[in-house]
Design brief:
Elements: E1 17-24, E2 28-33, E3 42-45, E4 48-49, E5 56-61, E6 64-69, E7 78-84, E8 87-98
Parallel strand pairs: 1-8
Antiparallel strand pairs: 2-6, 3-4, 3-7, 5-6, 7-8
């Protein structure tokens, strides 16, 4: 018989909400950990589904799931969430000031 889907989607040590600070112009990484390595997650920003683009990269490694926002800017600040199986982990991304790195570009 088919076993029911496990109720626990995210690893227990994963906080339900995280504050993430990023410096403008640098990349920002949001990461969460799922309980099962095969779990597929969906990332959202301010309620809108995100997909991999030149701006954001979605990565999976083992039970780790990452959303990498490249060259974060003020417009990237906001509420993000990682959802799977009706459960979610949320992040508040705050983008601060200019990075000294911009003068190297």
């Amino acid at each position: 018989s088919l076993s029911p889907e496990p109720k626990v989607v995210f690893a227990k040590e994963q906080p339900a909400r995280s504050e993430v600070q990023a410096v403008a112009g640098a990349s920002a990484t949001l990461s969460c950990e799922v309980a099962q390595a095969q779990t597929e997650v969906t990332w959202y920003k301010d309620g809108k589904k995100l997909s991999s683009s030149s701006k954001v990269r979605v990565e999976a490694s083992g039970r780790g799931r990452r959303l990498v926002v490249q060259q974060a800017g003020k417009a990237d600040a906001g509420e993000y969430s990682c959802e799977a199986g009706g459960q979610s982990v949320s992040f508040h991304l705050d983008v601060t000031g200019q990075s000294w790195r911009r003068i190297l570009s």
